[in-house]
User: Fold this.
Amino acid sequence: MDSWEWNKIAGAVLGTLMFVLVIKFATEAVFEHATPAKPGYAVEVPVEQASTTPAAAPVAEAIPDWGTVLPKADAAAGKEISTRCEQCHDLSKGGPNKIGPNLWGVVGRARATHPGFEYSSAMAASHNPWTFDELFQFLKSPGSYVPGTKMSFAGLRSEQDRINLLAYLRTQSDNPVPIPAPKK
Ligand code: HEC
Assistant:
């Protein structure tokens, strides 16, 4: 390469630098002018407008009154739903752990305590018993209720499906948890 070519390269580099600097000055100048002298005057939202469109806040799901819903639940339909759990769980007495722990007697069982199963640290962070309330919430969206769980199951959106399933799971036990008295 002769010096003429080097000059061309240096020229190109300098030209680019100049161009960048010019653009930088230009945009700074524009933004300087765009900034209002008194911030807050530029965007005026009428107060009524904000209040007439209430955000659709997610309504927290009410926990069923177990004493009322369980006696009316369809345990046979719940058994049908439980086949989806059987992909990963054995439900029978003395059955093996599969991808997930054996679920015999899971209603009322202390969380993350089934022998021989390696729970995630998220699940093992609590050993509170699996009450109807807890299972109802967990099975809606396992990953939201126990963030970090390795139960990769999307959840059962339908309340009635979960009620029916719990009515069935309750019976899969040596000692089914009693159905509480109705609250009203
Ligand atoms: C894709 C596999 C998979 C499916 C499907 C699945 N689970 Fe699980 N489940 C797991 C795994 C894995 C764990 C262990 C989670 C952990 O340690 O974080 C688990 C844990 C649980 C636990 C906690 C058990 C304990 O001993 O504390 C319950 C309860 C449970 N599953 C219920 C269900 C029910 C009911 C269904 C069906 C509606 C279901 N699972 C569907 C994989 C699955």
Q: What stands out?
A: The mean pLDDT is 87. Residues 84-85, 87-89, 99-101, 103, 106, 111-112, 114, 119-120, 122-123, 130, 135, 139, 149-153, 156 surround heme C (CB under 6 Å).
